[in-house]
């Protein structure tokens, strides 16, 4: 039989047959005079065995150990690993299911999980920030959490510092002013946005918030450059300068 018939009989694709040839799971039969490979019933049986093992959950790298070993010891060891992997996946799925149920029951956004991310979502819900500003804030938090190995303290400290501001609504209004600044904004409009932001950012900087460093700083700067238009970037740069430098121009 030819490869297409073999694949149809085994319930797989021709591409799968070729892949199994490449990784050595299925020996390649010699070609006939017309250039086609001719498969036998033995090839079909081996392919069916491979398919069955894969469906059970045996990884492709472990399949040869089960197929080619005479004793059952190898099969038992492989199946032990498969069962352990299945148990781990079941545990992860149960955790995911419980989180989904919690999000649905509490009508929370799917990204508003527990911990710092949930606290950030709660702040956003009360902030009146634009969707664009919320998305950037979430993405910044995502980078911080991932590159800090899941350590949420930097995000939590930032939220604490924001809550401690003298006028939190004014801070969010200033952030919205930055988010709404058009690319063609005049120098006066940029300066006004920077002036609104500067005292709030200065107060946050004076708090005990740990600032990012190294690779995280570079990635956060890159993310802001990608998301902010030139006028927004300019206004933000002015806002974070010290008072001594606040009078500079573009």
Give your account of this protein's structure.
- 68% of the residues lie in helices and 0% in strands.
- It has 2 domains: 3-58, Multidrug-efflux Transporter Regulator, Chain: A, Domain 2, CATH 1.10.1660; 115-245, no CATH class.
- The protein has helices spanning 3-10, 14-22, 41-56, 63-68, 73-105, 115-127, 131-147, 153-163, 168-179, 187-206, 214-227, 230-240.
- It is mainly alpha-helical and 250 residues long.
- Helix 6 (115-127) packs antiparallel against helix 7 (131-147), helix 6 (115-127) packs parallel to helix 8 and helix 10 (187-206) crosses helix 12 (230-240).
Comma- or semicolon-separated keywords:
mainly alpha; Multidrug-efflux Transporter Regulator, Chain: A, Domain 2; 12 helices
Outline the fold blueprint.
Layout: H1 3-10, H2 14-22, H3 41-56, H4 63-68, H5 73-105, H6 115-127, H7 131-147, H8 153-163, H9 168-179, H10 187-206, H11 214-227, H12 230-240
Précis, in short:
This protein is mainly α and 250 residues long. It is built from 12 helices and no strands. Helix content is 68%, strand content 0%.
How would you characterize the largest beta sheet? none
Task: Flag low-confidence runs.
Answer: 246-250
- State the share of residues found in helices, binned by percent: 55-70%
Instruction: Provide the succession of SSEs.
Output: HHHHHHHHHHHH
What amount of the residues lies in strands?
under 5%
Shape: elongated
Q: What is the rounded Rg?
A: 29 Å
Got a strand count?
A: 0
Count every helix, treating DSSP H or I runs of 4 or more residues as helices.
12
Mean pLDDT: 82
The helix/strand class is: mainly alpha
């Amino acid at each position: 039989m030819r490869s297409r018939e073999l694949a149809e009989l085994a319930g797989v694709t021709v591409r799968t047959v070729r892949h199994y040839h490449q990784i050595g799971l299925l020996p390649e039969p010699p070609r006939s005079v017309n250039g086609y490979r001719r498969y036998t019933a033995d090839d079909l049986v081996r392919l069916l065995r491979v398919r069955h093992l894969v469906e059970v959950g045996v990884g492709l790298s472990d399949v040869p150990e089960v197929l080619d070993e005479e004793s059952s010891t190898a099969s038992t060891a492989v199946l032990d690993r498969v069962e352990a992997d299945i148990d781990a996946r079941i545990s992860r799925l149960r955790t995911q299911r419980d989180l989904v149920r919690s999000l649905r029951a509490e009508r929370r956004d799917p990204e508003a999980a527990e911990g710092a991310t949930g606290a950030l979502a709660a702040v956003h819900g009360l902030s009146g920030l634009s969707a664009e500003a919320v998305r950037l804030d979430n993405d910044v938090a995502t980078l911080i959490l991932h590159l800090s190995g899941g350590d949420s303290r930097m995000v939590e400290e930032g939220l604490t510092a924001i809550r401690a501001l003298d006028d939190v609504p004014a801070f969010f209004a200033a952030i919205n002013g930055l988010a709404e600044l058009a690319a063609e904004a005049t120098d006066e409009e940029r300066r006004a946005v920077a002036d609104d932001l500067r005292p709030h950012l200065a107060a946050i900087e004076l708090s005990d918030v740990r600032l990012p460093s190294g690779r995280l700083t570079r990635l956060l700067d890159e993310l802001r450059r990608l998301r902010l238009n030139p006028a927004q970037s300019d206004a933000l740069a002015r806002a974070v300068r010290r008072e001594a430098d606040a009078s500079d121009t573009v």
